[in-house]
Specification:
Elements: E1 13-16, H1 18-22, H2 32-44, E2 49-50, E3 53-54, H3 67-74, E4 83-84, H4 88-96, E5 101-107, H5 110-117, H6 121-137, E6 141-147, H7 160-173, E7 177-182, H8 189-201, E8 209-213, H9 220-229, E9 234-237, H10 257-266, H11 275-289, H12 296-301
Parallel strand pairs: 1-2, 1-9, 3-4, 4-5, 5-6, 6-7, 7-8, 8-9
Helix pairs in contact: 2-3, 2-11, 7-8, 8-9
The structure holds 3-hydroxy-3-methylglutaryl-coenzyme A and magnesium ion (MG).
């Protein structure tokens, strides 16, 4: 039954990260033709944004070493799909293929900047500066992620002002949208509200923000609810709850797209996604990965 909650947004954009955040963390290498089919099925299910892969160093993330081949196979259907690029080399690889949307990914903490990007906190911005500037000059849209926004496995609690400062620097470089990552899934609802408000107080409105939750402690949907109440209308999610980060201790699956769709549908919030088609896709992918989806909704509705 649909029971709207007054004051929530009427429509939300689901930014699907299963093919990137999900598959980057799988021990098994997924064949490129399976990835192509995964992306095509997600698009066919009505997901408006499907992040496809990463142009990172292939020895850092071997799971996505086939990025160029995947995007070539997707052809014209791939040019508007966002891809991760950490630096100018990654951007060059994306530009060679005519891609139109990239995402840089920074860290709110010193330790994770070093572990994930081999750069200090400050050096990461020096790496992003020419990357974002050249992307913008080429007419390419740039999203920026900030990781460890709610806690870091090495540094513990991360102050709100440290996250806001990192986010502001990425926006000042020219990123259009900022995705706030709960990389290890430790956020709780009040913390989400406080962070969105802190960005608002620093002049960054909720419509420039996306929220990126991992579901390690089962809080992702509750955190989405807090984000909706704070006016955020873009949520990252991963089909079947695939995901994690190979360079973050204790990062587990992302918020499952199906769980998010169930919540939004119940609240009467428009999302444009065919739930049955995503469940079927995740069930099919679970077969390739050799383990069932952790998503409660996939378990309830799926056949595997
Ligand atoms: P580095 O070793 O410092 O690289 O790695 P470098 O700049 O010193 O270059 C060394 C060599 O690598 C050079 O080659 C470069 O050309 C090459 P050489 O001259 O020696 O022959 N190289 C590249 N090759 C291909 N593609 C590239 C590239 N860059 C350099 N893009 C680097 C620095 C950033 C490259 C490395 O640390 C890296 O690739 N890190 C990626 C880690 C990653 O992908 N993590 C997962 C994504 S983040 C995430 O999951 C969090 C998120 O979901 C949000 C959340 O949950 O919080 C987004
Ligand atoms: Mg992530």
């Amino acid at each position: 039954m649909v029971v709207p909650e007054p004051g929530l947004p009427t429509a939300v954009t689901i930014y699907e990260v299963g093919a990137r955040d999900g598959l980057q963390n799988e021990a098994a290498l997924v064949p490129v033709e399976v990835k192509e089919q995964f992306v095509r099925r997600l698009l066919a299910a009505g997901l408006p944004v499907v992040e496809a892969t990463s142009f990172v160093h292939p020895t850092w993330v071997p799971q996505l070493a086939d990025a160029a081949e995947l995007m070539t196979r997707l052809g014209a259907d791939g040019v508007d799909l966002p891809v991760l690029v950490p630096n100018e080399r990654g951007l060059d690889r994306a530009l060679e293929l005519g891609l139109r949307h990239v995402a840089v990914f920074g860290s709110a903490t010193e330790t994770f900047a070093r572990k994930n990007l081999n750069r200090s906190f400050d050096e990461q911005f020096a790496m992003f500066e020419p990357t974002v500037a050249r992307a913008r000059a080429a007419g390419v849209d740039v999203r920026a992620y900030v990781s460890m926004c709610f806690g870091d496995p090495w540094e513990g609690a991360v102050p709100l002002e440290q996250v806001v400062a990192a986010g502001r620097r990425l926006l000042d470089l020219g990123a259009g949208q900022l995705s706030l990552g709960d990389t290890i899934g430790v956020a709780t609802a009040g913390h989400v509200t406080a962070l969105v408000e802190a960005f608002g107080a620093a002049g960054v409105p909720a419509d420039r923000l996306a929220l990126h939750f991992h579901d390690t402690y089962g809080q992702a949907l509750s955190n989405v609810q807090a984000g909706l109440r704070a006016g955020v209308t873009t949520y990252d999610a991963s089909a079947g709850g695939l995901g994690g980060c190979p360079y973050a201790k204790s990062a587990t699956g992302n918020l499952a797209t199906e769980d998010l769709v169930w919540l939004l549908t119940g609240l009467g919030i428009e999302h444009g996604v065919d739930l049955d088609a995503v469940v079927a896709t995740s069930t099919w992918m679970a077969g390739h990965l050799g383990r069932p989806s952790p998503s409660a909704v996939v378990r309830a509705l799926g056949t595997a």
